[in-house]
Amino acid sequence: MLILAPSILAADFKNLGQQVTDTANAGARYIHLDVMDGAFVPSISFGMPVIASLRSCTDRIFDVHMMVEEPGRYVSDIKAAGADLICVHAEACRHLDRTVNQIKEAGLKAGVALNPATPLSVLDCILPELDMVLIMTVNPGFGGQKFIPYTLEKVRNLRSMIKQRGLDIDIQVDGGVTCDNVRDLIEAGANVFVAGSAVFKGDAAANTRKFLDIFEEY
Ligand code: DX5
Ligand code: ZN
């Protein structure tokens, strides 16, 4: 199934609840929540109180992208705030297996994110444990950046690695995803699409529907 995960980073924060409700009602299945600590990435975004207060807006899947050093420290707090899925960066975890297991033991879905320049080989051992792999298609830290073209090949290679090993794992892409490049990403094997600017700049409901119309072609 092809899933849209609007990233609220690009939303109008003074109308955040309404913006989330608009995209959810238009058919977005996930809400992508970007937590940034100013250490793993240069910027600081938002944390548990914002996630917790949005929880009452929608029952869509809360997909929390932790751009945080040693995210294992926050698994129980993020769960309490209402996360359904937690994605951690391989580059940010000294003990990736422990952190992934912490997420799963908390009863949540677990994902691992890779920066553009991180090779797929870091997933070799952990892959069967995962529900999702997030291939960053920009360098994490900011919305509104340009898609890095070489990441398309990475998605293709990951999809064949998953297939070869007989696994069933979602591939999420995040950064610079638009209605113009989403078909290439679908064809490369991605199935969960984060979009910040492409959803929230303008009419969030109409932009959501544009993506869903493209998904209908597949
Ligand atoms: C970037 C974040 C993204 C960001 C995407 O570090 O992880 O989720 O909000 O924004 P766009 O879609 O505008 O590139
Ligand atoms: Zn993200």
Automatic annotation (TrEMBL):
The keyword Metal-binding applies. Its cofactor is a divalent metal cation; Co(2+); Zn(2+); Fe(2+). It holds the Pfam family Ribul_P_3_epim. Coiled coil: none annotated. Pathway: Carbohydrate degradation. It is an enzyme of class 5 (isomerase). GO terms for molecular function: D-ribulose-phosphate 3-epimerase activity. SUPFAM superfamilies: Ribulose-phoshate binding barrel. Substrate binds at S7, H65, G141, F142, G143, G144, D174, G175, G176, G196, S197. This is Ribulose-phosphate 3-epimerase. It comes from Lacrimispora defluvii.
